[in-house]
Design a protein that fits this description.
The complex is a heterodimer of chains A (404) and B (136). Chain A is of the alpha/beta class and 404 residues long. Chain A is built from 12 helices and 13 strands. The longest helix of chain A is centred in the middle third of the chain and has 36 residues, at 246-281. Chain B has one domain (5-123): Sufe protein. Chain: A (Alpha-Beta Complex), CATH 3.90.1010. Classes of the chains: A alpha/beta (404), B alpha+beta (136). Chain B: This is Iron-sulfur cluster assembly scaffold protein IscU. Chain B: Residues 2-126 form the NIF system FeS cluster assembly NifU N-terminal domain.
Chain lengths: 404, 136
């Protein structure tokens, strides 16, 4: 078994060898290295053909028309283009947007920028499950709301929002609906028409494609308009200028093709591995799953080991690559804003570990992880004053702490 | 983030983890920090009649640097007089462990912890003195 064991597939994934194999053929002098925008020779035509085949594969995974796919540098750019593009274009119609506090920073920080420009944004609190309540969302809508942005799958806790229900409501209220699907494409079924999604952000590197490429789905019927954020040669029907990176587009297309073909079987395998991990840990005292366990993608398990601090646990788990909701590594000492938004107390928010399982994870790796986590949590609890107090029956919420 | 070898050593093999009887009149207990900030340190010292710290134990909830700071401190205070222990500065701990700037607060917490433990011991001792000697 190779170590360290990679259990951070929600951060990024390795490129599937089948994807890499296709990509390199669009780079070298012997390959189709042409500029897809070159109309005057075969180098350009071949590159364009490859880009369009990739575009069709991306579109197919989400039930879209290839003409509705705009290539970007990744999901962050797609989020920026969707939010700023719509807010600016429809600014005369209304200047209010609605989103949720547990969105990715690419959405939240873009909303902050729009607020600086004079737009108004409502940030909804999620339920303790991590999901947004539809009635509360509807109550936040105003006549001047132009856009609702809610992610499909949360990056930290993996919960799946019912975006079909959101889409139907937003459509009925006459606003546009954007969803960040960076964590859901290839993991949860997406059909932009059935779900009434108007704009959808996609990333390649979360689903075994290369980093540096993503896409924004932009609905054509009824037509959604955007103000471009990147100006230049008028590529991507004027919505996003810049020479297309053929090999990156090809990589994303191939990754999405594979995902579409294998998603059902892969999800079953991932769910079995995730349950194996969960069942290996659940009988430990004071272990809490963060977010709804049922409405969740197969590969995600986010748990808090109460009375153990996340960063020290990660340090103890050096043989496995996981991430912590505890951001003690930053100067702010703030625990995960996502877990805080779920109403988790500080101890639990500081004690969380995100395990994300993927295509190359094996049962042996899961079993090793279970053994290691149990051993290290026990060791750290033996030296935790909070665990000692808990064992003595002290109610930690009643203690007067000397903060610093 | 990369940890120094000394932090790793104390983290892997923490010295003097444990607890002393907090009701023992010769034991001083200091607990500092807060779960909300991500670290809580409990430091206990046992002081003999000569005013020398003959034992020290700690328990820490926190990152590797916090654990290492408290572990190192228990090593340093053993065999020291209360006066000597009071004079330990957080900067000495930070220097010894090569803590990066974002982890300096861990050494500050350790300094606070020993000061709190000494204050607790001294408060106990003062209370004993003020009590009538012929209580029996």
């Amino acid at each position: 078994m190779k170590q360290p064991i990679y259990l951070d597939y929600s951060a990024t994934t390795p490129v599937d060898p089948r994807v890499a194999e296709k990509m390199w053929r669009y780079l070298t002098p012997d390959g189709d290295f042409g500029n897809p925008a070159s109309r005057s020779h075969v180098f350009g035509w071949r590159a364009e053909e490859a880009v369009e085949e990739a575009r069709a594969n991306v579109a197919a995974l989400i039930g879209a028309d290839p003409k509705e796919i705009v290539w970007t540098s990744g999901a962050t750019e797609a989020d920026n283009l969707a939010l700023k593009g719509v807010a600016h274009f429809y600014g005369k119609k209304g200047r209010h947007l609605v989103t949720c506090k547990t969105e990715h920073k690419a959405v939240l920080d873009t909303c902050r920028q729009l607020e600086r420009e004079g737009f108004e944004v409502t940030y909804l609190d999620p339920e303790p499950s991590g999901l947004v309540d539809l009635a509360k969302l509807e109550a936040a809508m105003r006549p001047d709301t132009t856009l609702v942005s809610l992610m499909h799958v949360n990056n930290e806790i993996g919960v799946i929002q019912d975006i079909a229900a959101v889409g139907a409501m937003v459509r009925a209220r006459g606003a546009l609906f954007h969803s960040d699907a960076a964590q859901s494409a290839g993991k949860a079924p997406i059909d932009v028409n059935r779900m009434n999604v108007d704009l959808l952000s996609l990333s390649a590197h979360k689903i075994y494609g290369p980093k540096g490429i993503g896409a924004l789905y932009v609905r054509r019927k009824p037509r959604v308009r955007l103000e471009a954020q990147m100006h230049g040669g008028g590529h991507e029907r004027g919505m996003r200028s810049g020479t297309l990176p053929t090999h990156q587009c090809v990589g994303m297309g191939e990754a999405f093709r594979v995902a579409r073909a294998e998603m059902a079987a892969e999800n079953e395998r991932l769910r079995a591995l995730r349950d194996r991990l969960y069942h290996g840990l659940r009988d430990m005292p004071e272990v809490y799953v963060n977010g709804d366990l049922e409405q969740r993608v197969a590969g995600n398990l986010n748990v808090s080991f109460n009375f153990v601090e996340g960063e020290s646990l990660i340090m103890a788990l050096r043989d496995i690559a996981v991430s912590s909701g505890s951001a003690c590594t930053s100067a702010s000492l703030e625990p995960s804003y996502v877990l805080r938004a779920l109403g988790r107390n500080d101890e639990l928010a500081h004690s969380s570990i995100r395990f994300t399982i993927g295509r190359f994870t094996t049962p042996q790796e899961i079993d090793y992880t279970v053994r290691l986590v149990r051993e290290k949590v026990a060791k750290l609890r033996a030296m935790s004053p909070l665990w000692e107090m808990y064992q003595e029956g002290v109610d930690l919420s009643k203690v007067q702490w000397a903060g610093h | 983030m990369a940890y120094s070898d000394k932090v790793l050593d104390h983290y892997e093999n923490p010295r003097n983890v444990g607890a002393l009887d907090k009701n023992d009149p010769n034991v001083g207990t200091g607990m500092v920090g807060a779960p909300a900030c991500g670290d809580v340190m409990k430091l206990q010292i046992k002081v003999n009649e000569q005013g020398v710290i003959e034992d020290a134990k700690f328990k820490t909830y926190g990152c590797g640097s916090a654990i290492a700071s408290s572990s190192l401190l228990t090593e340093w205070v053993r065999g020291k007089t209360l006066e000597e222990a009071t004079s330990i500065k957080n900067t000495e701990i930070a220097a010894e462990l090569a803590l990066p700037p974002v982890k300096i607060h861990c050494s500050v917490l350790a300094e606070d912890a020993i000061k709190a433990a000494i204050a607790d011991y001294q408060a106990k001792a003062a209370a004993r003195k003020n009590k009538p000697a012929n209580a029996a």
